[in-house]
Design a protein that fits this description.
- This protein is α+β, with helices and mostly antiparallel strands.
- Helix content is about 40%, strand content about 25%.
- It is built from six helices and five strands; from the N terminus they run H-H-H-H-E-H-E-E-H-E-E.
- The protein has a five-stranded mixed β-sheet, covered by helices on one side.
- Strand 2 (about 100-110) and strand 3 form a beta hairpin.
- The longest helix is centred in the middle third of the chain and has 21 residues, at about 80-100.
- The chain starts with 13 loop residues before the first helix and ends in a 5-residue tail after the last strand.
């Protein structure tokens, strides 16, 4: 079902996931700084997460991309690192669909008790254009996120549209 092209096999992610969660929280180091250090600190907005996905889809629609979004299960999300990765996969897959595809874009998200999935599909762009599953920096970045998260990623042509499918494991108990 995941197919051979572009697959990143599930891996061990415990320590890396925890570190990504701390990085995604941001500001942790700044919060421990003294008052004088905080006066000069640059305050960064929090990293986006799955809760920002409706705004992301809305912005794509506002820019002219025909997107339908079907959701199953409760709201997507998990640890801050998981949450950021879910958002980034949706963001990158929608960007690629708009940039390289043609016509309608279908986004499906599903949150189950043991995993979350994201799937984006749309028709290929120019007829006869070569299809690559290695991709540019966007697909490479998604593959790295998924490998570090213990998930799996498929990106390639299906018997019709081009698809990006990401599967995230359930958050580890804290």
């Amino acid at each position: 079902s995941w197919g051979a092209p572009g697959v990143v096999a599930p891996g061990r992610a415990g320590g890396l996931r925890a570190l990504q969660g701390v990085v995604a929280l941001g500001g942790l180091r700044r919060a421990s700084a003294g008052p004088a250090e905080l006066d000069d600190a640059v305050v960064l907005p929090p990293a986006p997460g799955a809760q920002a996905s409706p705004a992301l889809v809305g912005s794509r629609r506002a820019s002219g991309v025909d997107v339908t979004w079907s959701r199953e299960g409760p709201t997507l999300g998990g640890t801050p690192g998981d949450d950021l990765h879910l958002y980034r996969v949706i963001q990158e897959a929608l960007t690629n669909a708009a940039r390289h595809g043609a016509g309608h874009v279908s986004l499906r998200t599903r949150q189950a008790s043991d995993h979350a999935t994201v799937e984006v599909q749309n028709a290929l762009g120019a007829a006869g254009a070569p299809v690559t599953t290695q991709g540019g920096p966007g697909l490479v970045g998604m593959r790295e996120r998924m490998a570090g998260d213990g998930g799996a990623l498929y990106a390639g042509a299906t018997p019709g549209p081009f698809a990006v499918r990401a599967r995230f494991p359930a958050p580890e108990p804290t």
